[in-house]
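Lab notebook, page 48
Experiment: co-folding of the full assembly
Goal: obtain a model of how the components sit together before planning crosslinking
Operator: M.T.
Materials (sequences as entered):
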Amino acid sequence: MTDVLFNNLVIGAVLFSIGAVGFLTRRNLIVMFLSAEMMLQGVALNLVAFGRFHGNYQGQSFTVFVLTVAACEAAVAMVLILMLYHRRHTLDVTVWHDLGEAPVDGQVPAEPPVFEPPPPTPIFPHLPPAGPEPAVVERKAPAHV
Amino acid sequence: MSIDLVDDLGRLFAEQWRMWLPLACGFLALCATAIGHRSARLGIGTVAGLLALVLGWSWWIRASAPGHRLEGFLFAVFAAGAIAAAFGMVVQNNPVYAALCFALVILSTCGLFLLQAAPFLAAATIIVYAGAIIVTFLFVIMLAQQSGRALYDQRLRLPAVAGLAGCFLLGAILVALQSTYGSAGPLENDRGKVSAVRSGTVPVLPILQNRRSPLSEPGPLPADAATLTPNQPEALATASTRPAVSGVVVLGRSLFGDYLWASELAGTLLLVTTIGAIAIVNRPKGATAV
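Observation: model returned without errors.
Model output:
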């Protein structure tokens, strides 16, 4: 049983580190979040393996809570990503680098790349149709010979 | 002082070659797919990735016992699929393909859950992750996509440094696992904790004695179950004489017995998250309210 536990722990560790590398490496906000979810999957695998090893269901119970928190986190993160997209019209995370504080030694960091957002398309309001209803001409289908 | 450090590092390097060789191949695969032309990406990246997988598998994954060959084969299929899909997700250009690779990771992890006697968790993970979270992701990709291929998807951001950090992380975890679980242990039954404690390979912390969560153990309810749920003692009197139960029944007993507070708090968290997600949404100016 220790062998099975060890194997599952190794797979959980590999999933966790690949998720960490993906989170550090990608610039797309959505793929960064997918990598974070993959780290959570590695942790869930660890929990289930330990639960099986100890012969009780505490690991599975904890995994249910991990699942719940992951779902909540996904919902809020998707809304935040959409709001960030509406600000700068890009899913790039590097345009938000100016949110960080200045370094301690007082040096000003380099300017982030200037991104020119495309001109926003004007939002046309939905007006109710005005005026009288147009006359509908009934056209009969031609009679087949 | 520094010579000792170099000596220690050298010794670590020489002794733990089973650890850093697959990690180096994985690092090479990551860097190869991150930079360079398409042919180099597909060629060197795939070869290095497969080499990392094969080497790491042969040196780190322990073979299954003679009576558990099918379980070992299924574990190999699901685990290799999970690792390959995870790596594919990290290096994909198209975010939609990355989401689909993540769906493959979820399916493989659910297969591993099934092998660990967690059918409810497998089904719940597929429903919640592959059914809800990934669909939400795809909706957001649809709403937030840019015309044409975005520039920020084409390249990885500092792949060498991130790969090095990932290799250090995975190496540290593997070394810790190796030192804790040592060489391949003997076959044990499902109550592996008892056998492992008797053989002295696994240290048991006092908190694992299950003194406070008896409802999580499979089997009939404990003798003092009436004190745990005082609402229906007569039902428990018959429940304690039933045969051993396992599976989803015990999971429900554990969730709503031992961890009732946590379950209620999780429901409250879901409610608060729903309200918060709706409250954060900011409608653009000028649009009429729907």
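Interpretation: Chain B is about 70% helix and 0% strand.
Next step: discuss with group before ordering constructs.
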